[in-house]
């Protein structure tokens, strides 16, 4: 229980960081965390990959899916192009054609939630959260957690 509470707090903190950067970049309202991105251009996508691998692990607590989905969405929005490149990389490493197709469908559904837009609005976060539950169910055991 204590570990889950700590993980939830960590996910919420990471969401705050990533959403701040994503909104700053989208609105042009400031540099966000551009200084960190200059030092490590793949900063946000690396965090997204780590979170994605954690979420699809069989031991990941279901109760953490809501904050994890919000956080993943914010991380994706920090650098959509880099996340698509990550997805392409995961697809190319997926092995046989059936696995690749299953992953492709799951990622397409995740990144095209009902309502259509990826944003940090409440409806978009809710749609992404529902898509995340479906994504985890579809790919758990298909993606190799490294």
Automatic annotation (TrEMBL):
This is Exportin-T. It comes from Bicosoecida sp. CB-2014.
């Amino acid at each position: 229980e204590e570990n889950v509470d700590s993980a939830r707090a960590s996910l919420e903190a990471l969401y705050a960081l990533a959403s701040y950067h994503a909104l700053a970049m989208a609105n042009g309202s400031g540099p966000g965390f551009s200084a960190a991105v200059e030092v490590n251009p793949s900063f946000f996508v690396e965090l997204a990959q780590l979170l994605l691998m954690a979420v699809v692990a069989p031991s990941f607590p279901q109760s953490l899916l809501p904050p994890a989905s919000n956080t993943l969405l914010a991380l994706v929005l920090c650098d959509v192009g880099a996340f698509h490149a990550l997805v392409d990389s995961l697809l190319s490493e997926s092995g046989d054609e059936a696995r690749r197709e299953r992953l492709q469908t799951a990622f397409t559904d995740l990144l095209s939630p009902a309502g259509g837009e990826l944003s940090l609005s409440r409806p978009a976060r809710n749609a992404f959260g529902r898509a995340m539950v479906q994504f985890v169910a579809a790919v758990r055991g298909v993606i190799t957690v490294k």
